[in-house]
Design goal:
Chain lengths: ~110, ~110
């Protein structure tokens, strides 16, 4: 079973702070990594993807990948109350038929 | 208009009824997926299709069937609905390359009484 693990939270951060969300995966053959944001009752929305070791920045979001340690993280700078949502980590490999999703981390940004 | 459209958005029905959830996409993607989401259990894959003639079971296919009527259409059926199939159902699509992300429809909230 190819596992993707996330802390369920809730992770609570004050407005303006950096939120750090982490994800570990078990399949060493994993090649592509995605972060989705999901508001309650809504569909998952892709916010970041990363394929190579290191950091990838997009606006207030930074994805970090460390394949040797098998973890991927998402940093949200200057967190806003509108960032309060569940963040899903998803992982795929070249031999995979579909994405493996973690169960998500709930983020709460308090004013 | 949404790229991935699911109908209906909400459905309440009774145990034993046959239900069909429909998904259509304008993204031109070959791959389509059906997931269900339950609180605390995350997204679970029901069926997936890589093209019209390639349909595969996911991790929780029992009690469900699918039909890929065209590249753009993928429907999910519950032949005889039961209460534990009450969930939020999502359709997703992706390009052929397995490194590409999936794009989700808005979901169908299904309640079975």
């Amino acid at each position: 079973q190819k596992e993707v693990e996330q802390n369920s939270g809730p992770l609570s951060v004050p407005e303006g702070a950096i939120a750090s969300l982490n994800c570990t995966y078990s399949d060493r053959g994993s090649q592509s990594f995605f972060w989705y944001r999901q508001y309650s009752g809504k569909s998952p929305e892709l916010i970041m993807f990363i394929y190579s070791n290191g950091d990838k920045e997009d606006g207030r979001f930074t994805a970090q990948l460390n394949k040797a340690s098998q973890y991927v993280s998402l940093l949200i700078r200057d967190s806003q109350p509108s960032d309060s949502a569940t963040y899903l980590c998803a992982v795929n490999s070249n031999s995979g038929y579909a994405l493996n999703f973690g169960k998500g981390t709930s983020l709460l940004v308090t004013p | 208009d949404a790229d991935v459209t699911q109908t209906p958005r909400n459905r309440i029905t009774k145990t034993g009824k046959r239900i069909m959830l429909e998904c259509s996409q304008t993204k031109g993607h070959d791959r389509m997926y059906w997931y269900r989401q339950d609180p605390g259990l995350g997204l679970r894959l029901i069926y997936y299709s890589f093209d019209v003639k390639d349909i595969n079971k996911g991790e929780i296919s029992d009690g469900y069937s699918v039909s890929r009527q065209a590249q753009a259409k993928f429907s999910l059926s519950l032949e005889s609905a039961i209460p534990n199939q009450t969930a939020l159902y999502f359709c997703a699509t992706s390009q052929t390359n397995s490194n590409q992300p999936q794009h989700f429809g808005d979901g169908t909230r299904l309640s079975i009484l």
